[in-house]
Write the structure tokens for this entry.
Amino acid sequence: MAPKVLVSDKLSETAVQIFRDRGIDVDFEPGLGKDKERLLEVIGEYDGLAIRSATKVTEKVLEKATRLKVIGRAGIGVDNVDIPAASKKGVIVMNTPFGNSITTAEHAISMIMAVARQIPEANASTHAGKWEKSRFMGVEVTGKTLGLIGCGNIGSIVADRAQGLRMKVLAYDPFLSQERADKLGVRKVELDELLAKADFITLHVPLTDKTRNILSRENLARTKKGVRIINCARGGLVDEDAVAEMLKSGHIGGAGFDVFAQEPATENPLFNLPNVVCTPHLGAATTEAQENVALQVAEQMSDYLLTGAVQNALNMPSVTAEEAKLMGPWIKLAEHLGAFVGQMTDEPIKAVNILYDGVAAEMNLDALGCAAIAGLIKPANPDVNMVSAPVIAEERGMKISRTTQHKSGVFDGYIKLTVVTPERERSIAGTVFSDGKPRFIQIKGITIDAEIGQHMLYTTNEDQPGIIGTLGRTMGEGGANIANFTLGRSGVGKDAIALLYLDAPLPDRVRQQLLDTGMFKQVRPLEFDVA
């Protein structure tokens, strides 16, 4: 029986025809995604679900989806899909991470031009029958300095277009290598220098704990007088109240916002201010982009349903059906190894080496490597997946290498990840036990045996009496329950580490209390996706 797909949001007819041409039964019902009760009634009939942003794939929907194997999102954002519930259900979630890049970059450039010449206000004034030529004095962009906060896929396209306008481009991106910056023709700078020198600032970063409010009131106050701020990335990156106040004071000369902290944005402090251009999250809204992502998602879903090939999956590696059963725990281990180092690293990564030993060396190393790199990048870029990870790593100038060797120790096989930055080298190794559970077996060359949990705490210190007591007492007094506790050291009185598996995230106050003891070099809470 042919696979059956439901298209519940608006997709192009060409995309729908791809399913039919590949021999897949397809029901095209745009708008069904908004009818929650009807979706619950019919979802059990389908092997695939193709959506945009309107359909909400909740845990309740997934419970009814007894046949569902794959969800394909035409676009990058998957906030409307309960990915943990889908993973638990065994449903693959795919997206199309690169289909909107050019369109979003072009929107940012359009915003720069619109704000520089006050085009929307001048247009409205002229349509109203006025002729206020002297009111709308603009500025040239030629020779001006553009500051990019984020120089990944979209940011690099903006840089290219801005250089075509004869702008000078500065880029702040901790993960941008000097080699990549040279290739793009941009000058890599720290954030303080960008704030002080940029005439225009555009943002091209995901919203994470590290980027949230990156243009805070304090940072905005350090910008050049007359600076123009453009945000086509994510709401929450900029203090909108502060921008509004500084527009009124004249410190900021203009702003262009396509995204807002609260969306839909029916009210906002930026609305109705002079020389502020606001659009309703149109970054990906072009005919070409919408067509590209629709065609891409149809091809990806068809490939999976007919051949088992997996592309751009957010919750499953790109492996064949035959490999999936054997490699699943090892792929999860590789992700955990990357996630450990990624959460520990704040500086640009120059090189990555992945050592595969024993049985691990006989597996699909491309898939394992993609899993490790995805885990490494994910703390800074939550949208990354196993397919996009190598592309992003290349953009950032990371040199990826791998080494294989025959069984060399007590384990049947293991994976060791070594990451080199301008400041240091970090390494971590792990294996999969016979019960199928990944374990950390070495950190910084120190042997350990650590179970991996969702919430963990990593500490380093000089080996000395009292560490265990201080850790236990401080955690207990702070209400942080320890599920498992692993210790290791390089020698008596030398470097020592502890890895704690916790029942809940470590409260900030407990972390600070541990640091205040003066006994620890590092106290780093860590999170792992163990679903």
The first strand starts at residue 4 and ends at 7.
